[in-house]
Every structure is written in C-alpha cells, then in structure tokens.
Design a protein that fits this description.
Elements lengths: L2 E2 L7 E4 L4 E3 L2 E4 L2 E4 L8 E8 L3 E11 L2 E2 L7 E2 L3 E6 L2 E7 L5 E14 L2 E8 L7 E2 L9 E2 L6 E9 L10 E8 L3 E5 L3 E3 L3 E8 L2 E7 L2 E2 L5 E2 L5 E6 L4 E8 L2 E2 L13 E4 L2 E4 L22 E4 L15 E2 L5 E2 L1 E3 L6 E2 L11 E6 L9 E6 L15 E6 L5 E11 L2 E9 L17 E7 L9 E2 L3 E8 L5 E8 L5 E12 L5 E6 L5 E3 L10 E6 L4 E8 L10 E9 L5 E2 L5 E8 L1
Parallel strand pairs: 17-25, 26-48, 33-34, 44-49, 45-50
Antiparallel strand pairs: 1-2, 2-16, 3-6, 4-5, 6-13, 7-12, 7-16, 8-9, 10-11, 10-13, 14-15, 17-19, 18-20, 20-24, 21-22, 21-25, 23-24, 27-28, 29-32, 29-36, 30-31, 34-35, 35-43, 36-42, 37-41, 37-43, 38-39, 38-40, 38-42, 44-46, 46-47, 47-48, 48-50
C-alpha cells in the first residue's frame, strides 16, 4: 500500500485500491477506484501512521449513482453509507451524498480519532440501516434495499487540533479553497501568539491566498514545486482562503486517432458494432402501430402444444404468414395512446419519464384473466421475428419489468424451416441455431421479473435466418413491460478495450531547461491486463524560460485490435521553477 507523505507535511493520502481486504477495482478517466462493496461482504483495510494522538479530518473521495424504485417520477435517490473503525474500536457510520455518476467523485469530510503511531482503519457496510421501497401513500413498502458502500477513490488525512496546553483561549483556523488545488492547516485552532502552518497543493497555479482578507500569497515557499507552505501567527479567529487557477495550456488540435464509440461490453468481453439496430421500432416511441410489422401474436387456441397438437408458426419466403397474426392487426394492440386498458387481455404502449438511460416508451402485455396456456405459439403469446444473416454474430439487448411474479421469455437465432421440433412435447424447447440463445420453459430460473433490468447477450446465428424473441408465459405475472430492444451485428472477435490510463507524475524542470516528457503511459484494459502505449505530445513546446505550472496534452496510441469510447487523452503537469 502506498501512503503519500511529503517531508514535514502532515497530510496523509491513502489510495483506496492499495488497501487490503475484499473488493474489486475499476478505472475511469485515469482514476482507479474501489468499486461498491456489498454489506457484510466486502471491506477495505489500511494502516495510517499518525504523528500524534487526536482527531483527524479525513477527506473521503467517493461516488455513487444508486437509484431505487420504479415510480415514473418519484425515483428514490440513495445516499449510501459506510462504517469506519479504528483499531477495531467504536464503529462510526457516515452517509455519503449521491453523485449521480459512478465516474464523478466528490469529497465528504469525516472525523476519525487516531492513536499516536500505527493505526488500522477498516471501511465496510454493516447492513445496520434499512431502506424499504415500494408500497403507496397508505401502505408502507416491503422491498428491502440491498446495502452497498459508495465507490472509493482515496482518503486524505489531516490533523485537527494539536494538543491543548489547557487554560488558554484557542482561536479557530478555518481553511477553504477553490478547485484546481487543495489547502489545509496543520491544526484547526491555536492560542494567541502561536504559529500554524498552512499547506497548498496546487493542481494548477496558485492564484491568491488571503488571511482574514489580507493577501499573503508571497509568503508561500516550496522545495519540490508540488507542496507550498507558509507560517501564520494567531491573533484571533483566522480565515484562510486559497484560490487556484488552471495550469497554463497551449493550443492544440486532436489528430484522427481512429477511436470508436461503437462497441458493447457483455460480461468481461467487448465487441465492435458493425451494423444498425434491426428492430424497426425497438424503442416503441411510435405508438401508431407503424414499425410493428416484426411483432406477432400466436394463433394456437387449443391449449399448450403437445405432441401432434400444435399450429406451427411460419413466415414464408414470399412474406405470407402461417399461424401468425401481426400484432398491429390482432385487435389486441391499443394504438395511438400511452394509456393502460382498464381490464382485459391486451397489449398497449406505456410511458415513463423517470427511467434511466433515456428510455421513455415501452410495450406492455397485460393479463386481465390468464390466457389459456400461453405457450410459445399459444393465443396471446408475443413473438418477434427479425431477419438475420447466417453464421453472423449479433448483440441483443432489451429491458423488462413485471408485476405480480415472473414471465418467461426466450430468444435466439432460428431457422424457419425447423425451429419447431416435429415431435414437440410440452417439456421440449425450440431448436435454436448457433450459440448464445436463451431457451427456457415454464418456471425456469431464466425467467425475467421484478424491477426494470437490462438483459443482453451476444449470439451467433449459425444456420439461422431469423432472430426470435418470444414472451410466452405470463400466468405468473399480471403484466410484462418490455422496451429498448436492440439487435445489432457485431464483429464476433472480442476486442481489448482501454478503460483507463494511469496518472503521470509531475515533471519539474529548472528555468531555461526544456522538460523531459515521458514517451509512454500505462493503460488498463477491460480484461484486467495492462498495456504500455506510446504518446504523441501535442503542445509540449512550453515556455521553459517563464516559471509556472503548465499542462501538456498528448494522445496515446491504441493497442492493436483494441477500441475506446473516446480519444486516449493524456495530461502531463509540468512545473518550471
């Protein structure tokens, strides 16, 4: 574990990913962090060597994007919590504000009491705080939220009040700072005539520092170009305000580096998209019935198909249908309205402005009274047939929600000539082609159900000529909501995706000497490996004759066969002193 400490500077910075414990890490925008840890499961633990006993302020840099519930506009925003213990004593629970993104880290300051010397700090979630959701204005919710800690980037320790000699009036020292840097004092109170040290850690340039309104910027000195300090004498309440400015940055133009946002990640593998969405109205934002010609309802009204007693569905080469009814012509689809039916077995369009990922409209299959044996081609079962190419890989995804239980769905590539076995029995499955399909029967654990969730897979079509999606058993659920359907061709060979680049240490150079910029950076790949990438610096010709803090921008090369969602931008901080 690395603990960063600079000379007499009492600031301690502990990078979360360097702790021990049970957790997973992720990387985003060059930041490696510890991912959310489930209650009573994950934890992290690290050592802190305190220069003296007492209270320490700990800046916890954390993120959290937890939302709870399915209400159209009253989504519950969750402020996650974590428990801190020092040397196994007196657990303390702290809540952390929702940052609305796992990639946006905000600081929340907590207080921990440390003993002089080595301390063991443990961070975890003890599941002692319960949140219930669901229900109504008159009925409390019964769904219990699963507790997690937020994501953690780092923990910054700084002391509060030094030992009090007793009997003296001690005046508070308040330090505040703007973005592009960090400031703190070695104590938060002092007696009249005592001195305190203020430290500045600029990410950019020191703009102005005031003490009770007086400019004290010129007092600050540095030995290494990264940490600045100045002593202040206590003459009463003291307020220090440090303003920082961004580093000087020259102009540059990004070259065409061949990046691509056209990829998807399923499990641990990423695939490059090479086609468009084959679902014509997969978002269901058109409620007129147009674009619904890929959707059908089953025609079998003779109960669950048994051996020799079923009606085989088919789309012929000339487009004619056998034992299939277009949904838009079935009389079961309510068109031109995002309103649910009062009762009855119907399909209708739903709308929900509160859903994540921008999903607003969806298709609902509602059961007023259970349809008789809603099997794969039973009356009322829903089928989508989308033409595809054989021996081709496709990415398929949709989102679903059910009420009152689970619903059975299955999907995959099928060959129209033989996907229904000639000797089909009640317990049989359909003949799916290729690989990656979901085949399930009534009661299978692969049923979809519960809150809105995304389902996704990469399939290979084999000898299939159609993609089939079939929602065929709803007697366990009162209705099934489905939306955000996508079926997109992908390159079947997984790519190695770049998900983050390590921060570069500050380069310090003397006035008149050109800085030596690194030629490579370390990239983290989605498969957990690391790659060394070369860097092209775009504005590295800085004015080394003028002291200051500069920001140099570069672009890292992409590894062969890899992809990234955005340009691999690298930033190098340079100090000329």
């Amino acid at each position: 574990m690395r603990v960063v400490r600079s000379g007499a500077n009492p600031l301690l910075t502990v990078e979360a990913e360097d702790a021990s414990g049970k957790f997973e890490t992720a990387a985003s925008g060059g930041v490696t962090y510890v991912k959310e840890m489930r209650a009573n499961d994950g934890y992290l633990e690290f050592k802190v060597n305190a220069p003296f006993a007492g209270d320490y302020r700990v800046g916890v840099f954390q993120s959290n994007n937890d939302l709870c519930g399915t209400h159209s506009y009253n989504i519950k925003i969750i402020d996650r919590y974590a428990v801190f213990t020092v040397n196994g004593k007196d657990p303390v629970r702290y809540f952390f504000p929702n940052t609305f993104s796992d990639d946006t880290f905000l600081e929340r300051t907590v207080t921990l009491t440390l003993e002089k010397g080595e301390n063991t700090v443990k961070v975890y979630n003890d599941d002692s705080w319960q949140v219930l959701w669901g229900g109504s204005t008159s009925t409390p919710g019964t769904n219990r939220l699963v507790n997690y800690t937020p994501n953690f980037d780092k923990f910054v320790f700084s002391p509060t009040v030094a030992d009090d000699d007793g009997g003296e009036i001690r005046y508070p020292i308040n330090v505040s700072y703007t973005e592009y840097g960090y400031a703190y004092a070695d104590r938060n109170g002092a007696a009249a005539g005592e001195e305190a040290t203020v430290y500045l850690l600029p990410d950019g340039v020191i703009g102005r520092v005031t003490l009770n309104g007086e400019d004290i910027t010129e007092r600050f000195r540095t030995k290494d170009g990264t940490v600045y300090s100045a002593k202040i004498k206590c003459e009463g309440d003291m307020s220090v305000i440090a303003s920082f400015l961004p580093a000087k940055e020259g102009e540059y133009e990004l070259p065409d580096v061949g990046t691509s946002s056209g990829f998807v990640t399923v499990g641990s593998e990423s695939y490059r998209l090479v086609g468009e969405n084959l679902f014509k109205n997969g978002s269901f934002d058109d409620n007129s019935g147009n674009g619904m010609d890929q959707w059908y309802v089953g025609a079998n009204r003779n109960g669950h198909p048994a051996n020799g007693k079923y009606m085989r569905p088919r789309i012929n080469e000339d487009g004619t249908l056998e034992n299939l009814t277009p949904l838009s012509e079935s009389g079961l689809l309510i068109k031109n309205a995002y309103e649910p039916p009062v009762s009855g077995n119907k399909f209708y369009f739903g709308t929900d402005n509160g859903q994540p990922e921008g999903m607003r409209h969806y298709l609902v299959e509602a059961i007023g009274e259970p349809w008789q044996s809603n099997a794969w081609n039973g009356a009322g079962s829903l089928l989508a047939f989308v033409p595809i190419k054989p021996n081709t890989s496709y990415y398929f995804t949709f989102r679903a929600y059910t009420a009152g239980g689970a619903a059975s769905v299955r999907f995959g590539a099928v060959n129209m000539d033989g996907f229904v076995p000639d000797t089909y029995k009640t317990s049989d499955s359909l003949n799916f082609s290729g690989s990656g399909y979901m085949a399930c029967t009534n009661g299978d654990v692969q049923n979809v159900g519960g809150a809105w969730k995304r389902y996704e897979a990469v399939i290979n079509s084999g000898d299939g000529d159609y993609f089939l999606f079939n929602a065929y058993w709803l007697q366990m659920a009162s209705y099934l909501c489905m939306g955000d359907f996508k079926l997109i061709e992908v390159d079947g060979t997984p790519i190695s995706r770049v998900i983050g680049i390590d921060r570069l240490p500050t380069v310090v150079t003397e006035k008149g000497t050109a800085p030596s910029l690194p030629g490579t950076v370390t990239a983290h790949m989605a498969d957990g490996t690391e790659s060394t990438l070369s860097v092209e610096w775009l504005n590295g010709d800085i004015d080394s004759g003028t002291p200051g803090v500069y920001s140099v921008t570069g672009v890292a090369s992409l590894p062969d066969g890899s992809s990234t969602a955005e340009a691999l931008i690298v930033t190098q901080r340079v100090i000329v002193r």
